[in-house]
Design a protein that fits this description.
Blueprint lengths: L11 E2 L7 H14 L6 H14 L8 E2 L2 E3 L7 E11 L9 E9 L4 H15 L2 H8 L4 H10 L1
Parallel strand pairs: 1-4, 2-5, 3-5
Antiparallel strand pairs: 4-5
């Protein structure tokens, strides 16, 4: 399944209201809950937090990809949060993160999870695209940008 097939307005939020890492994780999981993509908010949040506690998923160039595997989902789920102001996410390059891609997959579904991570890495290679996405003024604009890539 291509990542782009998962992107729809109800799983994109811009701007994020959060100002720190724990709140970003909570807000991203809430996006999935509000979109009807997950039932068990606490199970997903705990799985994401546990994964993040092992090693930060803040990459570089303003991108963070918090992700986890949990039995609380039966297929790959995606939430996207945009924070033009940047949020400290303990990233590899120590720069604030502006683009957040939350991936949640069931434990037995490695293929789509890895494929989605690879697609995000590919998107991240274009600095101009990342800047445009971080500055999208609406979920609709973000979806349009992502589907145009």
């Amino acid at each position: 399944m291509a990542l782009i097939q998962l992107v729809q307005e109800n799983i994109v939020k811009t701007p994020l209201e959060s100002t720190d890492k724990p709140d970003v994780l909570r807000e991203l999981v809430q996006i999935l809950k509000d979109a009807g993509e997950i039932d068990d908010f606490e199970a997903v949040l705990t799985a994401v937090q546990d994964r993040e506690d092992k090693q930060s998923t803040g990459l570089q160039d303003g991108i963070a990809v918090p992700h986890c595997k949990t039995r609380a989902v039966t297929r790959l789920k995606l939430a996207i949060g945009l924070a033009p102001q940047g949020i400290d996410f303990n990233s590899l390059d120590k720069a604030p993160s502006k683009l957040f891609f939350l991936l949640v997959a069931p434990p037995d579904m490695a293929g789509p999870h890895v494929q989605a991570l690879a697609e995000i890495a590919k998107l991240a290679q274009s600095k101009a695209f990342c800047k445009a996405l971080a500055n999208a003024e609406s979920a609709a604009e973000a979806v349009e940008l992502l589907q145009g890539e």
